[in-house]
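Subject: for your reference before the review

Hello V.,

The reviewers asked for a structural picture of the protein, and I figured it would be easier to keep everything in one thread rather than splitting it across files. Below is the amino acid sequence we used in the manuscript, unchanged from the supplementary table.
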Amino acid sequence: MIVEFTGRQYEVTSAVRKQVEHGLEKLQKILGKTFDTHVILATEKKRNIAEITITIRNNSFVGMAEAAEMSQAVGEAIDKVDRQAVKYKSKFRARKRSARKASASAAWNGQADGQAPSEQKMAVGISESTAVDVVIHSFPMTSRVTEAHVVRSDEAVALRPMTVEEAVKEAEFRDREVFVFRDTQGKVKVLHRKRNGKMELIEAP
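And here is what came back from the structure prediction:
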C-alpha cells in the first residue's frame, strides 16, 4: 500500500498522518493491501478540506469532506471511502459468484455419468433469481419393441361361481391384482386392484 500526502496551504502533521493510516488499516481488511492512496489536505478561508482517493484494479474511490477541524474532515472522508469500498467489495463478490456459476455451466455439457448425449439443460422460473436448472431428455423417434413374455396362470381364475364379496376375499387370499370369476348368474366379471389399493369391478359384456 502506497500513501501519498499533499498539503495545500496546510502542513501535514504527524497526528493527521496517523489518523489516515489508522483508517487505511481498516480498509485493508476489505480491499487487501494492493491499493494506492492519495491524500490531499487543504485550508481555505478557515475551512479544512480533506480529499482521500483510493485506487485499486482501475477503480477509484473518492471521499471528500470539510469541517472546522482537519481531524474531523479526515474522519468523514475516510468514512465515505469506507462505504464505497464495502459496496465495491459486495459487487465484486457477486460478479465472482456469477462467473463461477457461468464457468460451471459452460464446463458442464449437460451430461452426468450415464446420461445420454441428447440431454439438454435449461433454466425454468419466473425470474433469473428464482430460476431452477432442469434437464431436458430427448428420446429417439423409434423405440425398440421386445416380444411380450406371456405366462398362463390359473391362479387368477375362479373355477366356481361366487358373489362379489366372495371373489374379493378369494383375490385377497390368492394375493392377485387381477381376479376373474363368474357370478351366480353366470356373468363373467373381473376384479382389478388399482394403484390406490381399491378394487375395481369390471363386468364383461
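For the response letter, the relevant points are probably these. The helical segments are 14-31, 70-107, 164-174. The mean pLDDT is 78.

Happy to draft the paragraph if you're swamped.

O.
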